Amino acid sequence: MSNSEYLSNIRNFCIIAHIDHGKSTLADRILEQTETVAHREMEEQILDNMELERERGITIKARAVRLNYKADDGNLYVFNLIDTPGHVDFNYEVSRSLNACEGAILIVDASQGIEAQTLANTYLAIEQNLEVVPVINKIDLPSAQPDVVKEEIENVIGIPADEAPLISAKMGINIKDVMEQIVKYVPAPKGNPDEKLKALIFDSYYDSYKGVIVHVRVKEGTLRVGDKIRMMATGATFDVVELGYMGAKTLESANELRAGEVGYIAASIKSIGDTKVGDTVTIADNPADEPLEGYRNVNPMVFSGIYPADGAKYVDLREALEKLQLNDASLTFEPETSIALGFGFRCGFLGLLHMEIIQERLEREYNLDLITTAPSVVYKITKTDGETVYIDNPTNYPDVSEIEIAEEPMVKANIYTPSEYVGNIMDLCQERRGIFKDMKYLDLNRVELHYNLPLNEIVYDFFDALKSRTKGYASYDYEVSGFVPSKLVKLDILLNGDIVDALSFIVHADKAYSRARKIAEKLKDNIPRQLFEVPIQAAVGGKIIARETVKAMRKDVLAKCYGGDITRKKKLLEKQKEGKKRMRQLGSVEVPQEAFMAVLKLDE
Amino acid sequence: MNKPTGLYIHIPFCKSKCPYCDFYSLANADEYKKEYKKAVIRNLDYYSDITFDTVYFGGGTPILLWREICGILDSIGDRITNNAEITIEANPCSTDFNALCSLKQSGVNRISFGLQSGVDDELKALGRRHSSKSGLEAVLAAEKAGFKNVSADIMLGIPFQTEKSLKESLSYLTDMPISHISAYMLKIEPGTPFAQKMVAPANDEQMSEFYLKAVSHFQQNGYFQYEISNFSLKGYESRHNLKYWNCEEYIGIGPSAHSYYNGKRFSVDRNLHGFIGSPLQETIVTDDNPGGYDEWAMLKLRLSEGIDFKTAKSRYNIGKEQILSRCRLIPKEYLEITDTGIRLTTKGFLVSNAIIGIISDI
Description:
The complex is a heterodimer.
Chain A: E1 10-17, H1 23-33, H2 51-56, E2 63-70, E3 76-83, H3 91-99, E4 103-109, H4 116-127, E5 131-137, H5 146-157, H6 175-185, E6 198-207, E7 211-220, E8 222-224, E9 228-231, E10 237-239, E11 242-246, E12 251-254, E13 256-258, E14 262-266, E15 280-283, E16 302-308, H7 314-326, E17 332-338, E18 342-349, H8 352-365, E19 370-372, E20 379-383, E21 388-391, E22 403-418, H9 422-431, E23 435-441, E24 446-454, H10 455-458, H11 462-469, E25 475-485, E26 488-495, E27 498-499, E28 505-508, H12 509-526, E29 534-540, E30 543-550, H13 566-581, E31 583-586, E32 589-592, H14 593-598
Parallel strand pairs in A: 1-3, 1-4, 4-5
Antiparallel strand pairs in A: 2-3, 6-7, 6-15, 7-14, 8-13, 9-10, 9-15, 11-12, 11-14, 16-18, 16-19, 17-18, 20-21, 20-22, 22-24, 22-25, 23-24, 26-27, 26-28, 26-29, 29-30, 31-32
Chain B: E1 5-11, E2 13-14, E3 26-27, H1 33-46, E4 52-59, H2 66-75, E5 80-90, H3 97-105, E6 110-116, H4 120-125, H5 132-144, E7 149-156, H6 163-174, E8 180-185, H7 193-196, H8 204-220, E9 224-227, E10 230-232, H9 239-245, E11 250-253, E12 258-261, E13 264-268, H10 272-277, E14 283-287, H11 293-300, E15 307-308, H12 309-316, H13 320-327, E16 335-337, E17 341-344, H14 346-350, H15 352-359
Parallel strand pairs in B: 1-4, 1-11, 2-3, 4-5, 5-6, 6-7, 7-8
Antiparallel strand pairs in B: 8-10, 9-10, 12-13, 13-14, 15-17, 16-17
C-alpha cells in the first residue's frame, strides 16, 4: 500500500454551473488563493482563454489545471480542476471529463436557484458516481436567499446542502471553505501505480512546437518519458517525448504520471484524430487487458456548406478550417461546389452550437466573411438498384424515381423541465414529429420527458424553441438512435425561374408546404427590390408549392437640390457599389448574403 | 483671360429656418450682412483674372441681402460677360418691387422663387412664411419689373399631399408667367426638425405617381424636361445648373459652397463667422481626382440628353459595346438606346440611382 500513499492527497474535481452562476469566477479565485497564478498575471476567466468563450460566458473546450493547496489539517493537497464544456452538443466530451474526476462542485446562484441546465450535468455527474459538493454563490447580492436555495438543492437533486459554503466568488468571500470541502468530501482517487497502464484521454490540443498535447487522467499504472504508448481504440502508437502537469499558464514537465494523477503527454503526435476523447492510453508492449469503458466514436451529426463571401478567399477559408481542425477532431470538411455560391466546403459538426462556434471563429479569428447554407443531417437512401447511399448535401439527393427507401436519423431526447411547462414541451415535440416515450417526475416540480425525435427536426432551432417556451428553464440532451424510414422530399427554391442549389433542403413531406411558405416569405423580406420583378418559388419535384414576388423597385432617385455638391452624389454612388459587393449575382438577380442567413432562422 | 466660368455665391441668411431644410443658413444674423458682403468681395478679388458667364446667388434667402448683392455685382461688373445668366433665389414674402427693380438694374436677369406648393395648408406644413396668393404676387411683380426668366420650385411628397392637391399646385404653377420649373421630392434630412418629429413624406408608390403626374403636366404645358428635376420652356434651361451636369467648372463662394476648379472639387466649411473672419475662405478638397467616367455618366444620365458613345470613347476610352452590355441588366422601359447614345426615360429617371449604378460601373 505504501506505493499508493500519495493518492490520499490528490483531489480531482470539476465545476458544474449554469451560465453566469460564477463558474469561471470561482475557478479564478481558487487559482488565486492557491497562488497558482500570481496576482499580476491574473486576468478574468483565466480558464476560458478563447475570446468567444469569455464573451458568451460558456466553456467550449475542456481545460485542466493542477494546483497545490495547504489545508487546515496541515497537509499539502494536489487539486486537479477539470473545466468541462456545458452544452448538449458536447455531452460526450462532458461525460469523459467527468469520468476523469471523483467529485464535482455544484455552483448555484443564491438569488436564482437551480436552473435546468445545471440539472442535466449534475445527473451526468451522479451517474458517474461523482461526489457532488454544493456551493452557494453570489451571497453578496441583496436578493440572495441562501436558505431557500439550500432547500431546493436538497429537494431537487437530493443531496444534503446544509454544509454548503456560502460564498461570493466575485468578492472573494469564503473561498477557503470551498477548498476545505473539496479536501473533506471529494474522495481521493483509487488506482494502482504498479498495474498495467490505463489512462483516459479527456482532451487534446495542437501545439505547433510539441505536436498534439494530450490531457489524460491515469486510472491505473504509471506512464514514463520514453514509454511506447498505444491508443487502444485507434491503434496508433507513439513514443512519449514529454509528460507532466498542467500549470495555469504553462506546462510543468515531470518524469512520470501515476495512477490517480492528471497530466499531459507530448509524443510528436501530428494529428488530433489519433487522440480521440475517451480513448485509453496503454503501454504498447505491455497493454492493459481491456480499455476503459465508455469510449465512443464521435461522428458529425449536422452538415452545412460554408462558402467565402468573396470567392477569392477560398484558399484562406481552407487554411482556416485546417487550423481549426488541428484542435477539433470532431470538425470535418471537404470541398464542395455550388452554382450559386461557387467554391466552398461541406462541413460536419457535432450540433448546432458547434456549427455556430466554428462559423464565428472563422469569421473572427480568421477575418473571413462567410455564407452558410441551411444545416442538414445525413439521410440514408436505399436506391431501386439496391445501392445504399448516405446524403449529407441536399443537392446530391437522388431523384424520387431512384429511391426505394429513404431513412432519416432519430434521436432519443431527454428533456428536463419544471412541471408547469410540460404542456408546452409536448406541443413542441408534437410539432417536431416527436414520439412520446415516457415521463418521470423527479420531484413535485421537476419532470424528465423522453421522446424519440427526428434529428432534422432539432438541428434547426429546437434548443431556442424549447427555451422560449419554458422561459429558459428546460434543457435537453440527446443521443442518436439510428435510422427509420420516412416520407422525405427535396424542396427546391427558384429565383426568377432558376433553382438556387444552395437553398435546397430535405424535409418531411408533411412539412414541405409550411416550410416552403416560410422560406419564400423570408426571402421576399430579405431580397431588396430590383429593377424588375423577381418571382420566388418553392418546388417539390418540379411542382410549385409556394410563391412570393419581390416587386420591382418603384423609386430610387436623387431628386433634391444639392447645388454643386457633386461629391455627395458620388459618395452615394460609391456606397451603393459597396452594398453590391455583399450581393451574390444569381442569374440576373442580386441576392444579399443576409438572405442565405435568414432562411436558417425560421422560428418565430 | 481664361475661359469664362460659373460663379456660385452662397447667402446663408434666412428670416426663419424651414423645418425640412438642411442647407447652411442662419436666422437672425442680420447684423453680419455688411461684413458678409465685404468677405464675398474679398474672396472674389482673389479670382480677379477670371470672368463669369453664369452667376448664381443661392441660399439661404439671397433676396434678403438684395442691397449687398447689388454691391457685389457692381464690384465684379467688369468680370461678368455680356450675355451672362445671373440668378437670384427668392422667397415670395421677402420680395418687394423696389428690390426687384434694383436687382434688375444691377444685372440680375433670372429669379427663382421657392414657391413649393400652391396649397396653403401644405405651405404651412412645410413651415413656409408665404401663401399661395403672395407667391403669385411675387411672380407677377418680377414680371412687372422686367424679368423674362422666372423659375419656381415645387415640392413633391409633402405630408398630406394628395393627387388632387398636387394637381392644384401644378396648375397654379403653369398658369403663371414662368419659364422654368424645378420639381423636387421631399426628403427628410437627418438633424432637421422634420427628422426629429419623424415627419413622413409620401411613400415610394405615391412619390412615383406624383412625379409621373408632374412630368406629364409640365410637358403638356410646354415645359420640356431637361433634367430629372428640371423643366423649362425652350431656351430657358438654367445655364448655371447645366454646368454641374456637364462636368464644367464653377467657383463657389461662402460657407458650404462647393467648387470644381483647376481639376479639383472642394468645399467651404459651414461656418459664417469663420468665413467672415478669414482673409480668404478656407477650403477642403472633397475630391482630388474628379472627372472620371463614372462621374460623367452619373451626371450626364441625369440630363434628358443622356450619354453619347462618342464622348465615352474619346474621353474615357469606353466602347459602345461595353456600355450596351451593362444595359442588358436594365429593363427596356427605362432606357432609350439610339445609334449615338443612351438616355433615361421618365420612368427610368425614377430609378436612376440603380441604373446609374449599373452603367457607371465599368
